[in-house]
C-alpha cells in the first residue's frame, strides 16, 4: 500500500473515458491520504478529515475547473498562491485539476514548473478524458492511472436488474457508461422518441428517399431542435447502421437495437459492406457539418440522398 509505505507520488493522472468514476476515486484517494484513522488501509469515511473531503470543505484540498474553455494561467497562479499560504492546516496539501487536458499554454507551463520543483508535502491529481492533450513533459512527471470502462454486458445486466428492458438497456449502454445516466436516459420520453424516430428513418431510407425526407421534415427536425439533441440523434443513427454491419458479419452479434434484428437481417441481405461503409461515412460527415453550423434541413436532406445512394 503506497500510503502505509510512504510511497505516495507527488502527482497522478487519472485517465479514462466519461463514466469511469475518476472523480469519485479521486475523492476516495484524497480521503485515504488525509484520513485520521485508516482501517485495513482504507479511509474510515467518518473522521473529521474524511467528512470534510467528502463535502468539499477541507482547507488543504483545492480543486480547479476550466474557466470557460480552458484552465488559465491566472487560475494556476491563484492555486499555487493558496498552496503557499500559512493559514492552511498542517500536513499534506492536495490539488485536483478537473479536465487537465484543457490547460492553456501558460497554465501548463506554470504547472510544469511546480511539478519540477514541488514545494512541501503536496500531491496533485490531474483528471482527464483526453490524456494525449496533456503536455508530454507533464505526463512524464506524473504517475499514470488508467480507468477502464465498465464492460457493456455488465452494465446491461445492472440496467435490466433495475427494471429496464433488454432492448432499451442495449441502446443506452452504447450512449453512456454511467449506470445512473443510463437509467435516466431509459426513463426519458424524449430519448425513447429519438430511438423510435431513428429506426423509423432507417426503414424509410431503404424504401424511397421521398418517404425519408417526409420523416426528416415531419418528425426529425421538429424533435431535434437543440444541437446536442441532433448530435445524439445522429449518433443513434450511426449505431443503427453499425448494427446492420454487425448482423451481416455475425447474426449473433451484440446489437444496439436488438428489437430491430428482423429489419437488420433484411437490410444486411440487400446491402454490401461497401454500401454500408459509405452510409456510415455519410452520417459522420453530417455530424461534422453540424459542428460547422450548416443549415440543418439542408444537411439532413443531403444525408438522406447520400444514404439512399450508399
Automatic annotation (TrEMBL):
<dbReference type="Pfam" id="PF13177">
    <property type="entry name" value="DNA_pol3_delta2"/>
</dbReference>
<dbReference type="GO" id="GO:0008408">
    <property type="term" value="F:3'-5' exonuclease activity"/>
</dbReference>
<keyword id="KW-0239">DNA-directed DNA polymerase</keyword>
<dbReference type="GO" id="GO:0009360">
    <property type="term" value="C:DNA polymerase III complex"/>
</dbReference>
<dbReference type="GO" id="GO:0003887">
    <property type="term" value="F:DNA-directed DNA polymerase activity"/>
</dbReference>
<keyword id="KW-0235">DNA replication</keyword>
<dbReference type="GO" id="GO:0003677">
    <property type="term" value="F:DNA binding"/>
</dbReference>
<dbReference type="InterPro" id="IPR004622">
    <property type="entry name" value="DNA_pol_HolB"/>
</dbReference>
<keyword id="KW-0548">Nucleotidyltransferase</keyword>
<dbReference type="InterPro" id="IPR027417">
    <property type="entry name" value="P-loop_NTPase"/>
</dbReference>
<feature type="domain" description="DNA polymerase III delta subunit C-terminal">
    <location>
        <begin position="221"/>
        <end position="308"/>
    </location>
</feature>
<dbReference type="GO" id="GO:0006261">
    <property type="term" value="P:DNA-templated DNA replication"/>
</dbReference>
<dbReference type="InterPro" id="IPR050238">
    <property type="entry name" value="DNA_Rep/Repair_Clamp_Loader"/>
</dbReference>
<dbReference type="InterPro" id="IPR015199">
    <property type="entry name" value="DNA_pol_III_delta_C"/>
</dbReference>
<keyword id="KW-0808">Transferase</keyword>
<protein>
    <recommendedName>
        <fullName>DNA polymerase III subunit delta'</fullName>
        <ecNumber>2.7.7.7</ecNumber>
    </recommendedName>
</protein>
<dbReference type="Pfam" id="PF09115">
    <property type="entry name" value="DNApol3-delta_C"/>
</dbReference>
Amino acid at each position: 500500500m503506497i500510503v502505509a509505505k510512504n510511497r505516495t507520488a507527488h502527482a497522478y493522472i487519472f485517465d479514462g473515458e466519461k463514466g469511469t468514476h475518476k472523480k469519485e476515486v479521486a475523492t476516495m484517494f484524497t480521503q485515504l491520504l488525509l484520513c485520521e484513522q485508516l482501517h485495513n488501509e482504507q479511509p474510515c469515511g467518518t473522521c473529521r478529515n474524511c467528512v470534510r473531503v467528502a463535502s468539499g470543505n477541507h482547507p488543504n484540498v483545492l480543486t480547479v475547473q476550466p474557466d470557460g474553455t480552458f484552465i488559465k494561467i491566472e487560475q494556476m497562479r491563484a492555486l499555487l498562491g493558496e498552496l503557499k499560504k500559512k493559514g492552511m492546516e498542517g500536513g499534506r496539501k492536495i490539488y485536483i485539476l478537473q479536465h487537465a487536458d484543457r490547460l492553456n499554454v501558460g497554465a501548463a507551463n506554470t504547472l510544469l514548473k511546480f511539478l519540477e520543483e514541488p514545494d512541501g508535502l503536496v500531491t496533485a491529481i490531474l483528471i482527464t478524458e483526453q490524456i494525449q492533450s496533456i503536455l508530454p513533459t507533464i505526463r512524464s512527471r506524473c504517475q499514470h492511472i488508467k480507468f477502464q470502462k465498465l464492460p457493456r454486458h455488465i452494465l446491461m445486466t445492472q440496467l435490466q436488474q433495475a427494471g429496464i428492458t433488454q432492448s432499451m438497456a442495449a441502446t443506452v449502454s452504447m450512449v453512456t457508461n454511467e449506470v445512473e445516466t443510463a437509467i435516466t436516459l431509459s426513463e426519458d420520453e424524449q430519448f425513447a422518441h429519438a430511438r423510435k424516430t431513428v429506426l423509423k428513418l432507417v426503414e424509410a431510407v431503404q424504401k424511397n428517399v421521398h418517404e425519408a425526407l417526409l420523416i426528416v421534415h415531419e418528425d426529425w427536425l421538429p424533435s431535434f431542435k437543440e444541437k446536442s439533441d441532433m448530435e445524439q440523434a445522429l449518433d443513434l443513427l450511426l449505431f443503427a447502421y453499425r448494427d446492420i454491419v454487425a448482423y451481416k458479419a455475425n447474426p449473433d452479434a451484440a446489437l444496439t437495437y436488438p428489437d430491430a434484428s428482423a429489419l437488420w437481417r433484411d437490410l444486411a441481405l440487400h446491402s454490401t459492406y461497401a454500401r454500408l461503409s459509405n452510409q456510415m461515412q455519410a452520417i459522420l460527415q453530417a455530424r461534422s457539418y453540424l459542428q460547422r453550423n450548416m443549415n440543418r434541413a439542408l444537411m439532413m436532406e443531403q444525408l438522406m440522398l447520400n444514404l439512399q445512394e450508399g
